[in-house]
Amino acid sequence: MLVGTLSGPGILSDEALHLAQILWDYHRLSGPLEKSDCIVGLGSYDLRVAERCADLYFDQWAPLIIFSGYLGNWTKRMGDRSEAEIFADRAIAIGVPADKIKLETKSTNIGQNVRFTRELLQAHGLLVNSITMVSKPSTERRMFATCQKVWPEMRAFFTSPRVNFAEQARGGIQEGLIHEMVGDIQRMKAYPDLGFQIPQEIPTDVWDAYERLVSLGFDKHLMVPARPAFSAD
After folding, report:
1. What pTM was computed for the model?
2. pLDDT (0 to 100) of residue 232
3. CA angle 157, 196, 17 (to 5 degrees)
C-alpha cells in the first residue's frame, strides 16, 4: 500500500493519538463528487491514492487520470523514480489502460502539482472544465485551499482514499503522519499570507491540538527559516 515509510513504528500515548485524530478530522473534507473531465492524483508515499484514482476511473467519474509528482519532503529519501510514475504503475497493474494516464513528473509540492497539471493539459490541447483531485485524506484541505488559490477558475472536486485515521496510519507511518499533519496546520496558518493558498478557518480545538502536539515533540515537519519550507511544500 505504501511507497515507503515515514518513520519506524513507535508507541504513542493515548493523548497523542486523540490529538492527532482531531487534526485528521480537520484536514479531511469528504466533499461530494460529480462527474468531471479528468482525475488528478497527487503523488505521495501512499499508493492508496493511486488506487482511489483507479476506482474513480473504473466507476466512470472521469475518462482520464493525471498523476502529478516528482519527489517531495517525505518521498525524496525513498528512491529516484517519480511519485507519478510509481502511481501510474500501480493503476496500470490493477487495470487502468496506460493510454488513459498522463504524467506530470516535475512538481515537488501541492502548488506545483496544480500549476504543472494545468500546464500539462494546455500543452496537450486538452480542454478541461472540471477536475477531480485526489490526495491522502490528511491532505484534502491543503489540496482544496491551494487549488482555489492557484486555479480558482477550475471547477474542482476533492476526495481521497476511503480510510479512517487508524487505517491511514498503518504500515510504519503513524508517527510520521502526525508530524506531517502538525506541519500542515502551521502551513494553513502561514500560507495565505505567503500567497500559496486561500485562508482556512482553524477552530480553537484544532489549534490547541496542534500546539500540544508540538509541545510533545511532533515538530519534524514544521517550517523553519533554515529549511526551504516556505516554498509551498
Report:
1. 0.88
2. 43
3. 70
Residue 73 has pLDDT above 80, yes or no: no
Predicted confidence at residue 4, as pLDDT, reads 44
CA atoms in the 13 A half-sphere facing the CB of 40: 32
Domain boundaries, given as residue ranges, for the chain: 30-159
| CATH architecture group of domain 30-159 | 3-Layer(aba) Sandwich (3.40)
Rounded CA gap, 190 and 203, in Å? 15
Residue whose grid cell is 498523476: 67
